[in-house]
Specification:
The complex is a heterodimer of chains A (about 325) and B (about 525).
Chain A: H1 4-19, E1 30-34, H2 38-52, E2 56-60, H3 63-73, E3 81-83, H4 88-95, E4 99-100, H5 104-107, E5 122-134, E6 159-161, H6 166-179, H7 181-194, E7 195-197, H8 201-209, E8 215-219, H9 221-228, E9 237-240, E10 251-259, H10 265-276, H11 278-286, H12 322-331
Parallel strand pairs in A: 1-2, 1-3, 6-7, 6-8
Antiparallel strand pairs in A: 3-10, 4-10, 5-8, 5-9, 5-10
Helix pairs in contact in A: 2-11, 3-4, 6-7, 6-12
Chain B: H1 10-41, H2 43-50, H3 53-86, H4 92-100, H5 107-117, H6 123-135, H7 137-149, H8 152-160, H9 165-176, H10 178-194, H11 197-201, H12 207-218, H13 222-246, H14 271-300, H15 307-341, H16 345-359, H17 362-375, H18 384-394, H19 396-408, H20 412-420, H21 425-436, H22 438-453, H23 457-462, H24 470-479, H25 483-509
Helix pairs in contact in B: 1-13, 1-15, 1-16, 1-17, 2-13, 3-4, 3-6, 3-7, 3-10, 5-6, 5-14, 7-10, 7-25, 8-9, 10-13, 12-13, 13-16, 14-25, 15-16, 15-18, 15-19, 15-22, 16-19, 17-18, 19-22, 20-21, 22-25, 24-25
The chains are: A alpha/beta (about 325), B mainly alpha (about 525).
Chain lengths: ~325, ~525
């Protein structure tokens, strides 16, 4: 152990930056802040690159984490494109005035109800809220009629959710929009008493399947994805759709937008257009994501309950308030 | 065993403190950020966010975790160290290595394994169990090294005065283990406070998991910063405790004669019973994760081995671990030297600042650096330079503890002699201090490298776009409950950690200064 170890190590240090190949702003590729499932975003990126030759670098994280990060970064943001699983984080960035308007021919690919009127971002996929329950323990007549019923003391210790995830927070944002602040705060307080916290929707579903809890408030596609694989985490699980314009029937819109600060606006716009168009929407239909396609004329996977049958409540995506939701959840002791 | 406190050569005094202060100021950046955020939040909001039931819950669970885990680790590590260093246990060399080997299993892989075996495992019990299995080697290493080094003469003197063996152990040996027990316990305590992945798997909420959750919801909302503030106070508490317990004594052997290895106690017929302890610990701490990984790999088949994703992840992790290890060690050197050679209020203060940084969760360090780089030094934003800087800050305590223990073993007279013969301070540093502290340098770098290989939260926030380390890939796949897909990454982290752990083990076997 002589000092030579230092010289060797120092030589290696100087090589480290070569290892970590940061995206160069002058390259024709784009950087995507991706809060969507990595496998889906990767499939989109690969399909787009194959068709256009434009390189896509994904940075993976969470919806609101990235939304706030983009706001912190401001004009210096390395991101060209922002993709989310839910709308509230898109609204956050939009309200900060950091999105560039999307090209008109991109907006023409998506129906009005799946994008904000501002045209600053667009829906790229959708997911339905469900109550995933243990079919061994609960019969259809014992299921909650409304998401609001889960606040009832009779549900104490019987249901689960992933409160730290943007998915669940989007559902709360919809409740806030539909039922108002007082009812939502009361519901969250009751939730703290009644529910068990899991990290991630898949984990919550797995717990239902293992008999650790009777049901979980998650999105529909986790169940379909697992069924398509080995069903090892969902064989005892069935899905309950609340329907009836209930907050629990909320359909959450995944968003995509181009940042105003992008150094590659043309490529970034092309990427969103590709996702909203046939190429990107077909990935949803044929891939293993099982999220709903939202493009005009686009088909979702035939295994899914059609979007039109879900009786989702009408919620204007631009009204979903992520900050108020996290404040309420923090006040309720959920965060 | 006291040697008189002497002044170090005065020429050295000038630049070592300056370097140490510079490093300390760098370590205070994240803390300064949290304080700044607190001030920016305002007292009313801050109080509302700190004095709420949720914080009480987190405080209770975090304190319980530390209070339950540390004594278990101390007893377990000391028992194993005594068996491997002071008894004629069959296969003693293998057991000694196996007591260190759990360090090669990242904490969250340990958790992933246990949750696979027992899907319902959660809460405090699970936290204490898995934390103990994951972290006890941090105590075993220094305790075993000390047991190997201390002069049996003292014990023999005590025995010759008619003390029974167990009293000799508790009255003569244990006091000499004090530095090792304090240093190791502090390291484990800080790990418990800063660990994220391990506790997420078993749904055990600590301050760190709550902070990360807040960040994932709000990025850097005041709630997260306030939680971080409370966490920093917990770390200060641990640190103060360690300083008090460590005391002022010196433990270097001086005087005539030479130390010799202590004789091993004959276990006789108790050997069989005694083998059960290391065997059981090995089965739980290494057997469980390795068998689980093997099981998932078998279930996943060849489909889970995707070279185009794995090779870059491996190379990136390796590069970051080496770079961070070197930078952290260089940064820790002035501080370690100062704390041994001129202990005093200044070095305590500086050292304290270094331990606090190690206790801050990666996500706090990362956020501070994100904010600073994005607002002040934009060219460094999302570059590997910033990430390595974060690693060096976060893992400074590891480098520091290893170095401090090593430098404490170097008789000051050697440095003074070299200086009096006209060597420049830098030459003295390299030819005497560093050379004799080489074991500490090597084990410090290995410890830092290990930490980086398994670091998750700061890496995710600071990694340059396109970087995806083994830990990031593992976390993302296991989060999707694709446990089979995550298994190859778990295996690679283990494989990468084994040689680093071996360096630690081999260096701890050497007796410093020989």
């Amino acid at each position: 152990m002589k000092l030579s170890i230092f010289s060797v190590a120092l030589a290696l240090v100087s090589a480290a930056p070569l290892v970590a190949n940061a995206q160069d702003a002058s390259s024709p590729g784009i950087t995507v802040y991706n809060a969507q499932h990595e496998s889906l975003a990767q499939a989109w990126a690969d399909g787009f690159t194959k068709e256009t030759g434009i390189k896509v670098t994904l940075r993976n994280g969470g919806d609101t984490e990235f939304g706030n990060q983009i706001i912190q970064e401001g004009a210096a943001s390395p991101a060209d494109v922002f993709l989310t699983e839910n709308s509230p984080a898109m609204v956050l960035v939009e309200n900060a005035g950091l999105f560039a308007p999307l090209d008109a021919d991109t907006l023409a690919l998506v129906p009005d109800n799946f994008r904000p009127a501002s045209g600053k971002w667009t829906g790229i996929a959708a997911r339905s809220t469900v109550f995933a329950y243990d079919s061994r323990k609960l019969k259809p007549d014992q299921l909650p009629k409304s998401l609001m019923d889960l606040a009832d003391p009779s549900w104490k210790g019987r249901w689960a959710a992933s409160p730290s995830g943007a998915d669940f927070q989007a559902i709360v944002a919809a409740m806030l929009e539909l039922k108002g602040e007082q009812a939502t705060a009361a519901w969250l307080k009751a939730m703290k008493e009644n529910f068990t916290a899991y990290k991630g929707n898949s984990t919550a579903m797995k717990a239902v399947n293992a008999g650790q809890t009777e049901g979980a408030v998650i999105y529909h596609y986790y169940w379909f994805g697992d069924q398509a694989k080995t069903a090892e985490n969902s064989k005892n699980v069935a899905l309950h759709y609340f329907r009836n314009q209930d907050p629990g029937a909320f359909v959450s819109i995944s968003g995509g937008g181009v940042l105003a600060s992008s150094k590659h606006p043309k490529e970034a716009q092309a990427f969103i257009k590709w996702i909203a168009g046939k190429g990107g929407q077909d990935v949803l239909k044929t891939g293993n994501s099982f999220e709903y396609a939202v493009g005009i004329g686009a088909q979702s996977n035939p295994k899914l309950v059609p979007l039109s049958d879900l009786q989702a409540p009408k919620v204007e995506p631009s009204n979903l308030k992520s900050k108020q939701v996290t404040d309420l959840m923090t006040a309720a002791g959920l965060l | 065993m006291r040697s008189g406190r002497r002044r170090a050569p005065s020429r050295r005094i000038r630049w070592m403190p300056i370097l140490a202060i510079v490093v300390s100021l760098a370590t205070l950046l994240p803390l300064g950020f949290v304080v700044w955020a607190g001030i920016a939040t305002g007292w009313g909001t801050a109080a509302a966010l700190i004095f709420r039931p949720r914080v009480g819950e987190l405080l209770t669970s975090t304190v319980l975790l530390v209070v339950c885990t540390l004594p278990l680790c101390i007893v377990l590590a000391t028992a194993l160290a005594w068996l491997t260093e002071r008894s004629d246990l069959p296969g003693v060399r293998i057991w000694a290595w196996l007591a260190v080997a759990p360090l090669a299993i990242p904490a969250f892989v340990q958790s992933y394994a246990w949750i696979t075996l027992f899907p319902g495992l959660h809460g405090l019990f699970a936290g204490v169990l898995i934390s103990t299995l994951a972290y006890f080697p941090f105590l075993y290493l220094p305790v075993a090294a000390t047991l190997r080094r201390i002069d049996p003469g003292l014990e023999e003197a005590a025995a010759s005065l008619g003390q029974p063996p167990w009293r000799v152990f508790f009255r003569v040996v244990v006091p000499q283990l004090r530095l090792a027990l304090c240093g190791g316990s502090l390291l484990i305590g800080l790990h418990l406070l800063a660990e994220y992945g391990l506790y997420v798997f078993i749904r055990f909420d600590t301050f760190t998991t709550a902070i990360v959750e807040q960040f994932q919801s709000t990025f850097n909302g005041p709630a997260a910063n306030m939680l971080a503030g409370v966490l920093v106070l917990c770390c200060l508490g641990l640190l103060a405790l360690e300083v008090v317990l460590r005391g002022e004594r010196k433990y270097a052997r001086v005087g005539s004669g030479a130390s010799r290895p202590a004789p091993r106690t004959r276990l006789g017929r108790r050997r069989i019973i005694c083998v059960l302890l290391p065997a059981g610990v090995t089965l739980l701490s290494i057997g469980v994760p390795l068998l689980t990984i093997a099981q998932w790999l078998a279930a996943g088949g060849s489909a889970v081995w995707q070279a185009d994703a794995m090779v870059p992840a491996l190379m990136q992790t390796l590069g970051l671990a080496i770079a961070g290890g070197v930078v952290a060690t260089l940064a820790a050197l002035p501080m370690a030297w100062l704390s041994v050679r001129s202990p005093g209020p200044l070095s305590r203060l500086l050292e304290g600042s270094n331990y606090i940084i190690g206790a801050l969760p990666g996500v706090v360090v990362a956020l501070a650096l994100v904010t600073i780089t994005v607002r002040v030094v934009l060219p460094l934003y999302q570059t590997s330079v910033t990430l390595i800087f974060a690693y060096a800050l976060m893992f400074l305590p590891r480098a520091l503890i290893s170095l401090r223990a090593s430098i404490a073993q170097i008789p000051i007279g050697l440095e003074q002699a070299a200086a009096s013969l006209g060597r420049s301070p830098a030459r003295v540093m390299s030819s005497i201090t560093l050379r004799l502290a080489a074991p500490g340098v090597a084990s410090g770098m290995a410890l830092v490298g290990l930490g980086i290989t398994n670091e998750l939260t700061a890496t995710q926030m600071l990694a340059p776009n396109g970087v995806r380390t083994l830990a990031m890939a593992f976390w993302s796949l296991s989060g999707e409950i694709d446990y089979a897909g995550a298994a190859p990454y778990a295996l690679m982290m283990v494989v990468l950690s084994v040689p680093l752990t071996w360096v630690l083990y081999a260096e701890s076997k050497r007796i410093a200064g020989r």
